Structure formats: structure tokens, C-alpha cells
Amino acid sequence: MRFKGRMKLEHGLHQIDIVPLINTIFLLLVFFMLTSNFVLQPGIRVDLPKAVTSEVVKYENIEIVLDKENKIYLNDKLITIADLKLLFHQLSGRSQTVLVKADKRASLGVIVEIWDLARSQGVSRINLATNQE
């Protein structure tokens, strides 16, 4: 026993043209490819340690980056401890904050050395950058 309504549906399925659907999908694909941009963050790649109690610092900092090979960067330029000492000496008169972005694989001894150097030159506002968990 065949129903008349079912016959129309089966007959209609054979005539579905999928070319407009493929064209639409292709146009969406081209649109997203052209409008997407891949943002690469400039600077030194540092894997910051995670902390639960970290806070967001809202004031302007001087960022010192310490990578996993214990190299020290200021404004993406490699500097030495002697350069850092000179920088801290220049900052001693101001109430400038120093932010140390140290990789979690960096030596704790170098971080302490930077911290101690800053304090010995009169810079008292030093923060360590972390990622919030």
C-alpha cells in the first residue's frame, strides 16, 4: 500500500540541487580565510609560572624579561647585569615600578640577583609577573 504524499516526497528528494549549498560553504570558507588574521605577540617568549593569588597590576611598569636560558631583556634588547644596574640607578630617584617577567624554567638565583640589585640601587617597587590559574 503506497501513500500519495510519500510519493511526492521521494520524487522531490531526487531533484535537490546541492550546488548552491556548496557555493555558500565555499564563499563562507573564503570569507573566513580572508578576514582572519593570525596575531603573533611580539617580544620574548616567556612561559610564566602560575599563581592562584596573583593580582592585576594597573600602573606603568618597566618590564624586565628573563627567559629560560637566563638571558635578560629590556624592551626586547639583550642586556647585562651591569646595564641593569645602571638602569636601576637611574630609576632610584623616581617611584617607578619594575616588573620582572621570568620564565618558570629560569634560574631562581638570577631572579634573586635582579631583585637584590634593584633593591640595592633604591628601587623598592618590584613585582613578579605570573599567570592566573
Could you characterize what this model shows?
The strands form two sheets. This protein has a five-stranded mixed β-sheet with strand order 4-3-2-5-6. The chain is built from four helices and seven strands; from the N terminus they run H-H-E-E-E-E-H-E-H-E-E. The longest helix is centred in the N-terminal third of the chain and has 17 residues, at 19-35. By secondary structure, it is of the alpha/beta class. The mean pLDDT is 84.
Strand-helix topology:
Layout: H1 4-13, H2 19-35, E1 50-51, E2 61-66, E3 72-74, E4 77-79, H3 81-91, E5 97-102, H4 108-120, E6 126-128, E7 131-132
Parallel strand pairs: 1-7, 2-5, 5-6
Antiparallel strand pairs: 2-3, 3-4
Which overall shape is indicated by the principal axes computed on the Cα atoms?
A: elongated
| Helix share bin | 25-40%
Number of helices: 4
Query: What would the average pLDDT be, to the nearest integer?
Result: 84
What topology, given as strand order, has the largest sheet? Answer: 4-3-2-5-6
The secondary-structure element order is HHEEEEHEHEE
Uncertain stretches of 5 or more adjacent residues: none
Q: Could you tell me how far the N terminus lies from the C terminus, measured between alpha carbons in angstroms?
A: 66 Å
Q: Label the structural class.
A: alpha/beta
Instruction: Work out the oligomeric state of the chains in this entry.
Output: single chain
Major β-sheet profile: 5 strands, mixed
- DSSP strand (E) fraction? 15-25%
The number of distinct β-strands equals: 7
Question: What is the radius of gyration computed over CA atoms, rounded to a whole number of angstroms?
Answer: 29 Å
